[in-house]
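Most newcomers find our protein records easier to grasp once they have seen one. To make this concrete, we reproduce a full record directly below:

===
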Amino acid sequence: METAPRPVILWQADPRGGRVVVACCPRARRLGVRPGIAIAQATELVSHGPLRGVPLRSGGDGRRGRSVAAAAERPWVEQHDPLSDSIALQRVAAALQEQLSPLVAIETLDRRPWAGQVINQPETILCDLSGVAHLFGGESGILAAAHRCLAAFGLKAKLAIADNAAAAWAHAHYNRRDDFLSQDLVADLEPLSIDALRIATETRHTLDRLGIETVGALIRLPRAGLARRLGEPLVKRLAEILGEYEVPMHVIRQAPQPQATHVLQYPTDDLQIVADRIEGLTRQLVAQTDGRGVLRLVCRFRLVDERSWEHRVGLFAPTLDAAYLGELIHAGLQSRRLPSPITAITLEVLQSDRMRTTQRSLFAEDPVGLESDGASPRSLSRLVDALTVRMGREAVLGVRLNRNPLPEKAYRTYSLTDHSVRRALRQLSSPAEKKKTNEDRTSDHPFTATGRRHHERFVAPSSQDARRRPVKLLRNPIPLAVVPSGLPDPGPARSGGNANRLPAFRVHGQVHRVAYFWGPERIETGWWEGPSVRRDYYRIETDRGQLWWVFRDLQGPNAWFLHGRFF
C-alpha cells in the first residue's frame, strides 16, 4: 500500500450516510482520510491536502506547479468488494493455521455494527498461541513469523498478543503501536478507547454524555450500577476483556488431507516413467480419501540437488477417478520442463469435497440419459479441467455481475477451479426483482426513425429482461460514422419532436438506417471514480435487421459508438 502511486480509498453505499469511506491506505490516512467520512470529503482532503501551506513558484510556471501537485495526489477510489475480502481473509487464515497455530478463527460479529465499526464484516483473525510460543523463540518470534506469512500475500497488519482474545482484539484495533505485546492486562487496557469493548452505538453515546472515554475510567465504576443503567451486555463485554469470561473461538477445522510418496531407485527425467509412478500414487491417494472427491492436489518432486519442484492441479468438480487424476497431472507436466532429474514423488490432496450424485434417466432423449450424447455435468467438468491444465487456471474463467452501471465494469471474472470463490458466490442471496416504474415503461416504447411511436402490438421489456443488455458486449466500442440524412441531429437531450430522431450510421462501408429505437438510457460515472463518463445508450433496429446497442458520448464531440449486438 505504501508504494501505491496514488492514495487508495475504498467506499461503500450506506443507507443513511450515502457513499462513505470504509478503508484507506496509510498515505490517505496521513492526509486526513478516516473510515466513516463521506467519499466527497475524503477526495477533497486528498486532492487539496498537499497544497496547503505550499507557496506557488514565482514566474510563469507557478500555475503549472499547483496543477502538477494536485494531479499527483488524485486518489484511487474503488468500491469495496465484500466477497473478495471474505475469500482473501479465509485464505490468510488457512495460511496462518498451517504456519503459526492449529487453532485459528475468524472473528464473529453481532447483527448490528459495534460503536466505531464502519462495515459489519469480519476483518480480524484470532490465533490461540497456547503451547506454540517456544517453537518460534518466544512471542516476538511469533510476531515476526506472522509478518512473514502476511508478506507472502502482500499484506501488512497490526498484530497484538494478550492474555485473552478480547484483549488482543482491543489492542490490535485501538492501540497506537503496530505490534504490541501485553505485559500487564489491566494496565495496558486502561488507556484504550471504550470502542475497544465492542459495545452498541447507543451505549457508546450514553457513556459519552457521562464523560467516560477510556476502558480504565469504566473499570473503576461499580459493575452493579453499570448493569442497572446501561444493561448486561456492557458488563459482559467488560468481563470478556478482563479475562473473567472466556469467549469461545469458532476454530477453522480442516480435516487432514491424504498424501502418498514414492522414492525412485535412481534419478530420472523420463516423463513416461514419471507418469507410471504417478498413476500408482493416485490409486493410493484415492484409497485414503474416505469417499471424499479430490478438488485440488499438488505433485511435489524432489530433485537430485535436493531442491523441491511442484506442480498443482485444480479441478472443476470433485472426483475419485485415479486414472483421470493421473492423466491431468501428466498433461500438465508435458507443458512444463523438469529442471533436473527427480529422486522422489509426493502427491498431496490440498482440498476435497463430498461427491455429488445424480439420478440417471432410463430414457435416451434425456440430456443426461444413459445413451445420451448431450453434455452432462461430468463432461462439462472434464472440459474445464482439460482446458485449465493446458492453458492455466487464469485463462479459464467464470463471470459474476456487480452493480457498477458502466458496462465495461459491470462484471468480474474468477477462476472456475477456485472453489473458495464459487462457494462464496453460492452463499450470496439473489436480489429480489424490483417493480418497473412508470418512467421505465415510458422509455421502453419504440419510436420510428422519424420520431413517431410505433403502435403495433409490443410487449415492453422489464428491468430484468435480457433485451436490456446485448448478448455480445464489444471489448472496444466501434466508432460509428454518422451519415447525413436530412433529419436534424437528436442532440444530447430529449426535448421536442426532433430529439426523437436518430441518424443513419456507416459501419465497415455499409450504411445502416435506424428503423426503430428505444432510449435513451443515461449512464454516467461519479466524479470520484476518475475521468467522467457520460453516455446516452439506445437499443436500435436497423433497416438491415440488425439489433444494436449504441451510445452517444456526451463528453467532447458527442461521437456515436457501437458497444454491443443482441444477436
Summary: Residues 82-99 form the longest helix (18 residues). Residues 50-72, 364-375, 429-445, 486-499 have pLDDT under 50 and may be disordered. DSSP finds 16 helices and 21 strands in the chain. The CA atoms of residues 100 and 182 lie 19 Å apart.
